[in-house]
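Our working data are protein records whose layout never changes between entries. An example says more than a description, so a record of this kind follows.
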Amino acid sequence: MAEIQQPHGDKVIPRVIEDEMKTAYLEYSMSVIVGRALPDVRDGLKPVHRRILYAMYDMGMTHNKPFKKSARIVGEVLGKYHPHGDMAVYDSMVRMAQDFSLRYPLVDGQGNWGSVDGDNAAAMRYTESRLTKSAEEMLQDIEKKTVKFVPNFDGSLEEPSVLPSKIPQLLINGSSGIAVGMATNIPPHNLKEVCAGVNAYIDNPEITPAQLMQYVQGPDFPTGGAICGVSGIKDAYLTGRGKLAVRGTISVEENKQRQRLIIDEIPYQVNKSQLIEEIAGLVRDKHIVGISDIRDESDRDGMRVVIELKSGVNSDVVINQLYEHTRLQTTFGIIMLALVNNAPKILNLRQLVGAFVEHRQDIITKRTQFELDEAEKKAHILEGLIIALENIDPIITFLKSSKDTGEAKQGLIEDYKLTDVQAQAILDMRLARLTALEQEKLREEHSALIKLIAELKAILADPKRILAIIKHEMNEVIQKYGDERRTKLIPAEAETLEEEAFIEQQEVVITITHAGYVKRLSPDTYKQQRRGGKGVIGAETKEEDFLEDIFIANTHDYLLCFTNKGKVHWLKVHQVPEAGRYAKGTAIVNLLQLEKDEKIATFIPVGEFKQDHYLFMVTKEGTVKKTSLDQFSSPRKGGILAIGIPETDALISVLLTDSKKDILIATKQGMAVRFNEEDVRPMGRTAYGVRGINLREKDVVVDALVADDTATVLTITESGFGKRTAMTEYRTIGRGGVGVTNLKVTDKNGTVVAVKKVADTDEIILITQSGIVIRTPAKGISVIGRATQGVRIIKLDEKDAVTSATIIKMEE
């Protein structure tokens, strides 16, 4: 586009804003990727870390020199190399000094440098620092023209584009960073293992990542802990991506009649004080049971968090609960992304090791070439001095007769075939060098240089010699800094350890309120009463809340939790927090990921997902559907769709069947239909289903059951009336019919709220809006005909009403 001349003389070039934004954002993203967030594959450092180390080295702050104030170092880095915020530099420096952040710290800090509890480091004016010995290995030979230097931000100085890095920094200390559209998260490793892997790569350049795993077993975190299983490690080492389950370590101590758990290692990057608060909160909310006290006894000797257990509690159960519910077990996602020739690339283990070896080959080649050049320069000068010593008398006579230095130098060059450098060295030679001893030393030095030059040329001519030097250096590094692995590797079997192995199988009562509070109790909570009793309080409920459902399940079962919207969620019975009779329980939204306005319609306890079993679903508007049970065998967070339902409808009941039974559907206005489930073909999870009962106006389905002619049908009304009717009185008709009368609905007994299948040996639990629960034997309720209004089962206060009923099977 043509330029537009503005009145004040500035030039404005019109551009399409989309193009300008695209260009600007691309430049910004590349700046973040290359200049800030990602490490270089060669030295494993981001620019800020590289600049800090180089500035400290340039200031002479080696491990054997006195500490200097951190503020002085930060100022040096800011002023010379890193034009960003001072806290950005200091925060990076702090992390490099923390032994719980870096496996092998690069900064030796004095003062308060923060803690694993999340405490911040002291201000930079208080702390002091210097390089660690291992950090100096990162900078060794930098003065020998081994790395490329580039201009700093204002062109006034030069800084290294990469460090020589004698140690494989990227793997031993790892790196994490978020760029634009990409992120890296490389875990730290054990130095001995990585160096051994480097040597193995040198011995066999065709080595595979799997073969390298014989040397590099897995990440080694500074905080210790344990990695569960090797599948995530294999994925990361073979592909560059993987997920690890990382656990803290817990030991058990006996203390009189009780046990106590000792946490002495926690997962990498987990805040200890927040972890303790998290455990305390879960104990308070009864998600973790059996803990009486928690205290932190950590000191300078190490970490020690003590968890006191209640008397008689199984410590294995509590340990598994801690791993399941707290950050004592975390997932570490590995993304081995680094800059290769200034371009981001995901690398496997072999590529990371290979890039380091290639970098060291380049460094050693340049170092050797530099040493060769220096040796040849020195040998050249010594050769001139030796010529001078051999002709010292005539040279002295000549020098004495020369007018000036220029004439003397020119005469030496011409008479003795010397170079300018040699002639100058002769002129600069001290008289002390003329003694016999000094002359001998000079000749010995020259002889040693000739041998060194031959050796350096041999190294440069043979790549194998360079690789041998790298191996020798790796062995030196192991001797100096190698230590034992801190993070244990637990076999995969421990990863799949199920908590049920330590939980006793027993029948429990599960209750759920209208507002969505759930709990489990022992069936012994409810004492048996005769028909017509007042009942006991089953739960303390808010004024606007009331108990809605109650049923029996085994602690080892899965609960398939079906919602009114037709979705199914999974929950282990033992994961439902246990509570007392008067407790309201735990909000189900804390246990399941429910959507807004989604409520639990029914629960199905399932011990095993069999292919020849089916889930038979019934909705409020009379739609039915049958789906194979094995389609629900893969638990997923957030649940899955079990039946497609219109917004006006809702799921009422789900039955577990074998596809050969009769189904009885009962309605609010006292109707019932019985048909064989073979009338309904199996369907997929997302299907809408077919018509099960033809409802009259304003009538809705309240319950459904699997028919059994040896049992009776129990019908309960909202006013506390009920009756039992022989199952045989309900004849089998076709699916979709209007059905027959199940109960005579009147103003006295009210509409139907529950229809259950019972035997004489069963017991019944009824619950009301106000939270009253009554437990009564089924045989105490008369067996009468279908078209009757029933007898009073529970005395209700005014405005109270029965909301739900469940059956307790008392047979073996």
User: Anything to note?
Assistant: DSSP finds 18 helices and 43 strands in the chain. Residues 493-499 have pLDDT under 50 and may be disordered. The longest strand covers residues 258-265. Residues 382 and 442 are 7 Å apart (CA to CA).
